[in-house]
Amino acid sequence: MKRDLVGYGTTRPQLAWPGGKRVAVNFVVNIEEGAERTFDSDGVNEGLVEVPRRAGDAVRDFAVESMYEYGSRVGAIRLLRLLAAKGIAATAFASAMALEANPALTGELVDGGHEVCAHGYRWSEAWTMSDAEEAASIADAVASIAKTTGKPPEGWYSRWMPSHRTRLLLVEHGGFLYDADAYNDDLPYYVQVAGRSHLVIPYTLTYNDAHYSYGTFSNPGDFVEYCRRAIDFLASEAGGSPSLLSIGLHPRISGQAARTDAVREIAELATEHPDVWIATRLQIARYWLDRVPPA
After folding, report:
1. Secondary structure of 1-17 as H, E, C letters
2. CB 102 within 8 A of CB 72
3. Cys bridge to 180: 143, 157, 174, 264, which one at CB 3.0-4.6 A?
4. What is the DSSP letter of 75?
5. 120-178, pLDDT tens digit by residue?
6. Contact partners, residue 192, CB within 8 Å, separation at least 6
């Protein structure tokens, strides 16, 4: 994966989103609960939870597991139903194992018209795998999601980051319109993989509720303000180029009542803004593929 420090540079694409909108806002619900690392299966306890204090990795951490269970039992459906009530179809970065473990949640995703983007079979780290192991993991994730949701995923997002071979394996597997394994732009872009043009729709950890766990959001209003400022700035930015804003949510975090209320405010800001198109990543991918040819 060769670094590109220039990107579009000073000649960013000049087009509008549907309806002449300037900002595409994509709500992402990360569904990982039940697919995360646990002491029993991995000899370690997972992080990215409500408190920084953990039991370490010498014993099973029942508190951490219970926090993940909140996301699966309560938070995910709460978030999905809130977004659906606002007329918003979200993208679910869903680990296949998490969907297998919770048929009711999987049904909520399908019935609500949300996009399911593969987030691995487990919420695992591709850079620790061999070529064959990672290829098998991709195949297993696609087969499982196709079985649980009724159709295979057309997008991919790794845990945290890909390996050096992930993008090639996705192209070789086939069926993927995009991956989200980048944080480097406000717009989709193409890369060359094995002689083919492949679409990347970058994600973000900036407009992401993980900041509650990091301690950089002290109250739900911080998240609202972050997103409000981003939407307003991108909508008013000069130059004629569109923008993409991803808003990342985790059921065990933003599924908590006070934080879900912040998501409600963000959703209302986005739906009421005259320059915002709310879309799934798959809708964004199809729009881009139809209108912006590879260079």
Report:
1. CCCCCCCCCCCCCCCCE
2. yes
3. 157
4. I
5. 999 889 999 999 999 999 999 999 999 999 999 999 999 989 999 999 999 999 999 99
6. 198
